[in-house]
Every structure is written in structure tokens, then in C-alpha cells.
Amino acid sequence: MLIRKHFRFEAAHVLPHHPGKCSRLHGHSYRLEVAVSGPLQPSGPAQGMVVDFDDISALVRPLVVERLDHASLNDVMPNPTAEHIALWIWHVLAVELPQLAEIVVWETPTACAVVRAEDARTR
Ligand SMILES: [Zn+2]
Fold first, then answer.
1. Whole-number Å distance between alpha carbons of 23 and 25
2. Residue 119, pLDDT score
């Protein structure tokens, strides 16, 4: 089974290689989806769950949201496209969350980048 948890962060970026308006400093209200997959746990405090949603939040908030929220993303990674942000988040979280299945970064209400486990392995 696959579960998802949503997060938000506000951040600024510049896309230095972009020929249009994205080469100027601007910000987005990013939405992040973290998906985790695996079997339901048969016993213990997370019985009947893949992973406790609270445990996902306990990792994602300090490792990702608190580092990117109200930050200049160019200080964190070069050329912070939605694709690069999604890959950065994948690599930060995959170490701590082995059941990580998908990272989705929504840059606008209609545009997102998706990294899945099979994409991350080929990077
Ligand atoms: Zn932008």
C-alpha cells in the first residue's frame, strides 16, 4: 500500500539558465508530497499502518521543511528547478526513510516534478 503526506514551504529562487522571467528573483508557495509504500505493519504502535503519519512529519519537518522554508533555494542547490528540488529532497529523505516511494514538488497549482524510486536509482 502507498500513503502520502503533504507539506508546504515558501521559498525564493532564480533559474540562471532560464531565458524568461524565471531568471529574476521570485518566490513560490511550494507544496510537497511524500509517499511511502510497503506492507501494513502486523503489530506494534503502527499496527495497520505502512508508517505512522506522525513519524513521516517528524523526519520531513526538520530535514526538509525547516531547511527550505523562507530560504533562498540557490543557497541550498545550484539551479533550483522543481526537478532539482525534488531530487534534493529525495536524497535527504531516502537515507532516513527506506520505504520512500515518491517525492512530488508542486511549484505552482498546475506544475509539479515527480521523483520515484526507479528514477532515483538511475541518477
Ligand atoms: Zn520559479
1. 7
2. 83
**Which residues are registered as beta bridge partners of 3?**
36
Annotated catalytic residue 107 = yes
Say which of 18, 70, 91, 96 is annotated catalytic.
70
CB of 47 closer than 8 Å to CB of 80 = no
Q: Ligand 1 mean position to 46 CA, how many Å? A: 38
Catalytic residue among 22, 33, 83, 112: 22
Q: Which of 65, 61, 43 is nearest to 53 (CA)?
A: 61
Taking the domains of the chain in order of start, what are their residue ranges? 2-121
Question: Could you tell me the pTM of the whole model?
Answer: 0.94
Distance 116 CA to ligand 1 centre (A): 22
Give yes or no: 26 in active site.
no
CB 4 within 8 A of CB 63: no
Domain 2-121 architecture: 2-Layer Sandwich (3.30)
The mean predicted confidence, pLDDT, of the chain is 95
